[in-house]
Amino acid sequence: MDRPNSPGHLQAAVARAPASALATNKVLRNTYLLLAATLAFSAVTAGVAMALNLPHPGLILTLAGYFGLLFGVHKTANSATGLLFVFALTGFMGYTLGPIVSAYLQFVPNGHTVVMNAFGITALTFVGLSAYAVKSGRSFSFLGGFLFVGILTAFVLGLVAVFFEIPALSLAVSAMFVLLMAGLILYQTGEIVNGGETNYILATVTLYVSVFNLFTSLLHLLGMAGDE
Q1: Closest CA to 178 of 147, 218, 142
Q2: CA 116, 121, 127: angle at the middle one, nearest 5?
Q3: Is residue 61 part of a domain?
Q4: Is 161:173 a contact under the CB 8 Å cutoff?
């Protein structure tokens, strides 16, 4: 039997390293390609909703549709059907976004500027954090527990703010989500880079949700700053 530091073990380790790097690069590439496609599809459905002046489905239907489709993604993530659920989910979320953007454009002072600023900050944040996570190669797995608790807390507080109509709490929740989504982008990208996430469908959905929530939270914050 070869010792841990024997030539045989060293050769095996050297052989495994390139294979592992190729697998990681493949997951990363597939994730970014699928993310770009889903963001584009989401933008199209949002544009259609805006053009047709479709109403927002409301909080209950939005949550039901989101969690139902998300459940479908997780159940089929290891098959081609998972791709259909990913586009169904992101298309649905794009549709819910359309009426929101329309409302900002129509009713918020300098609404076009607010929307473009939110879009620009979201794009720069995503690109910057993703580039840092990829280039540094660091693992951000230590953020996992904090992000889970933080997102769950912010979600519950957000529901409280909506049902009890507490604008100050709603604003605080949006600020929380901006920080949490930035952390989630770092966490998920780090998991891909370090081999902790090998399913590009699940990785794509996580990053899409991060970008979506980051954008909508920035819309709220910038809209309030512009005397919404």
Answers
A1: 218
A2: 125
A3: yes
A4: yes
Task: Determine contact, residues 30/200, Cβ cutoff 8 Å.
Answer: yes
Mean pLDDT to the nearest integer, 185-193: 96
Q: Among residues of the chain, what percentage have pLDDT more than 70?
A: 89
What angle separates helix 111-136 from helix 81-107, to the nearest 10 degrees?
Answer: 140
What distance in Å separates the CA atoms of residue 135 and residue 137, rounded to the nearest whole number?
6
Assigned domain for 204 exists = yes
How far is 78 from 199, CA to CA, in rounded Å? 8
pLDDT band at 109 (very low <50, low <70, confident <90, very high): confident
Whether 8 is in a domain gets the answer no
Average pLDDT over residues 57-75: 97
Residue 6 within any structural domain of the chain: no
Range of the domain at 78: 21-225
| Angle, vertex CA 52, rays to CA 85 and CA 174, nearest 5 | 60
Domain count, the chain: 1
Cα distances from 147 to residues 54, 66, 122, 126, in angstroms, run: 34, 19, 19, 17
**Any idea which of 41-45, 136-140, 201-205, 208-212 has the lowest mean pLDDT?**
136-140
- Residue 65 phi/psi, 5-degree rounding, is -65, -40
**7/3 Cα distance (integer angstroms):** 9
Cβ–Cβ under 8 Å, residues 209 and 74: no
What does the pLDDT read at residue 86? Answer: 98
